[in-house]
Structures are given as structure tokens and as C-alpha cells.
Amino acid sequence: MRGMVTLTLLAVILAGMLDAPPARAQATVTVDCASGDLVADALTSTAPELTVRIIGICAEDFEVTRDDVLFRGANPANDGFSWGGGDGSEVAFATVLVREARNIRFERLGFFDGSRNGLGVENTNSVEVDRCRFQNNERGIGASDSIVLVTDTVFVGNNLWDFGAFQGSFIDCTGCTTSGSQFSVLASSGGSVNVGGGTIEGNWGAVATGNGSSMFLDGTDITAASMGLSVERNAQMFVTNTTLDHAFQVVDDALLDMDGVTQTANPIDLNFINMGSTVRLRVSTSATGDTLLWSGAHLTIEDGAQLDGLLSCGKASDAYCEDPLLVLEGTVDCDACVSAAVARTPARTAWEPLVLPELIR
Fold first, then answer.
1. Which distant-in-sequence residues (6+ apart) come within 8 Å of 321 by Cβ?
2. Distance of alpha carbon 39 from its chain centroid, rounded?
3. Predicted TM-score of the model (pTM)
4. CA 179, CA 39: separation in Å to the nearest integer?
5. R_g of the chain, CA atoms, integer Å
6. I need a labelling partner for 268 at 20 to 30 A (CA). Which of 6, 100, 121, 317 fits?
7. Beta strands, E only, 60-211
């Protein structure tokens, strides 16, 4: 009886093995840039799964349109891609352009000196960027109708932005470090970005979202030369457990929600909320600097949050404070932040005259 059971089990196992799909063929191609090898030639492989090993810096613009490719280097400072002097074709949109492909991954590679994007991604649902470096490109990563997952990657010296999501794209950047661009992180035209940890630094503004886009930041250190956070035109930004160095600007029916955020410094001394926009300062959030609400804007300061500065409301704007004393230097014309029981004279008066030509749009 035991022998019959054993034979039956063996038959089942063998049948399963016969029915299992065959293993996908894999191939590895080495591209030695110094020897004149081309990545474009490596991509002609017909193997279902392809690994392209990069040695050195290849001065080549190329397009990836096939699925299941792993690009791998040993050191992102020494292995990768630089702009090859694109001839104005669509490939010149980026040094490396991934279009309508799946399961594309870049590991330990550098993207250097691109005239536009170091990496462009279009209509692609799975691109991973791991331990890479984007340096001295016009823009780092630009994504359109795509999903891009970035981990432990460095962006330095790119001109316009480090990574940007557009037209329904989603970019997740975990443990990333940026410095030297005008705007480090950008979402627009329905794009969405999630930033977890890391350090974000911008020459003008650190993080910006607009045109119906969304941004999520958690556990990130944010530094900028002028504007730390900019939210515009029906966009939303949610920031948690983050340090913010510099001001925030929220305009044109936008939303900024901050929870557990510490605004450590604000050299320009003005946070600005304008044109029907809303800002929420939730528990454990500490904002620094004067804050001006204008043209139907709204601010909520929850109990446990605080604003270290003067709060002023104008042109049908108002603020709600669960405790008026949360505004350390008082309020001007923000009636919902002042109660009869805790009314007090502001430490200073509102701006007279009010001149904000660069912020009011």
C-alpha cells in the first residue's frame, strides 16, 4: 500500500514538472565603452531576459523599447552614460529613453551631462533605478505616463530639476539625495511623487507641484535658497515628519497639509497662502516666519501646532486656530484665530504697504 502511495505521488510530481512552463532564456552582454562597444547593439539580443553590463562611460544616446532588461555597472562614478550629442531625433529627448517597455532596471550607473533628461521614461509601467548617480544634466529623470521607482540615488548639479513626474506618472524616491538644481523635485500635469527619507536641496526651490498633481514627503530634510515648498494650481502636497528650511508658498486653489513638520528657518520671513488655497498645520508642526493669507485663502492651526511669527489675513481670507496663543506673535484681521477670552494685541502690525510683486500671481 505504501509503495502505491509513493508511486502516485511521484507520478503527480512528474506531471507537474511536465506541465511547468520552460525557463526563460537569459543572456548577459558586456558593453566596454572604452573599446567602442554600443549599448544599442547589445539591445538587439533576442534573449527574453537580458543583462547589459556597462564598463566605463558610454557617450551614446539610445532608446529602450524591449522588455526585461537589467543595466548594471560596478560604480556609478565610473560606469554609465553621457550625452552622445543627439541629432535632434526623439532619442535626444534623453540620453537614455525608455519607451513602452516593461521591467527595466538600472543598477549602480551614472547619467552625465545630458542636454535634456539624463533618463526619460514614456508609457512604461515598471522602471527601477537603484544606487545610481545623475550629474550635470539639464534635467535628471523625466517621466510621462509611467511608473519609476528610485532608491538610494544621488542627484547633483542638474540644472532645472532632479526628478519630475508628468502626465499621470508616478515616481517614488526612497533614500535619495539632491543638490544643485533649480527645483529638486517636481510634479505637474497630473503627476505624483512620493519621497521617503533622504535630503532634498534646491538652488531656488526644493519641492514644487502644480496643475492638479500630488506630492507626498515623509522623513525628509528639505533645504532651499528661496522657496522650500511650492504648491500651485489645484495641486496637493502632504508632508510628514520632515524638517523644512525656508518658506512655503501655496497659491491658486492648492492644498498643503503638514503633520510633524519643523520649519527650522525662514530667512525671507514670509510664508504665503493665496487665491483660495488651504494650509493645515497639524499636531506637532512648528512653522517659522510671518504668514500672509490673501484672496480667499484658508489656514487651520490645530492644537499642538504653532506658528512662530505674525499671522495676517486680507481680501476675504481667514484662519482657524484651536488656540489663538498658538500664533506666537499674534494675528491681524484673522477673526477666527481670536476669541473674546484670549484676545490680545499683536506684537506687530500688518504689512503697510503690502508689496509682494513676485508672489501674487
1. 300, 301, 327, 331, 334, 336, 337
2. 28
3. 0.87
4. 29
5. 26
6. 317
7. 62-64, 69-72, 80-82, 94-99, 104-107, 110-112, 117-122, 127-130, 133-135, 139-144, 147-151, 154-156, 161-166, 170-174, 177-179, 181-188, 192-196, 199-209
Rounded to whole angstroms, the Cα distance separating 166 from 190 reads 6
Residue whose grid cell is 504689512: 351
Residue 144 is placed in which grid cell? 510621462
Beta bridge partners of 285: none
How far apart, in whole angstroms, are the C-alpha atoms of residue 115 and residue 155? Answer: 16
Question: Which three three-digit cell numbers place residue 303?
Answer: 492644537
Q: In the beta sheet, which residues pair with residue 97?
A: 63, 120
Cα–Cα distance measured from residue 281 to residue 258, given in angstroms and rounded to the nearest whole number: 5
pLDDT per residue of the chain (361 residues) written in tens, 0 to 9: 545 545 555 555 555 555 555 556 799 999 999 999 999 999 999 999 999 999 999 999 999 999 999 999 999 999 999 987 655 444 457 999 999 999 999 999 999 999 899 999 999 989 999 999 999 999 999 999 999 999 999 999 999 999 999 999 999 999 999 999 998 999 999 999 999 999 999 888 899 999 999 999 999 999 988 889 999 999 999 999 999 999 999 999 999 999 999 999 887 779 999 999 999 999 999 999 999 999 999 999 998 999 999 999 999 999 999 888 889 888 899 988 875 334 444 444 444 433 333 333 3
Q: Who contacts 71 (Cβ-Cβ below 8 Å, separation ≥6)?
A: 39, 52, 54, 104, 105, 106, 107, 109
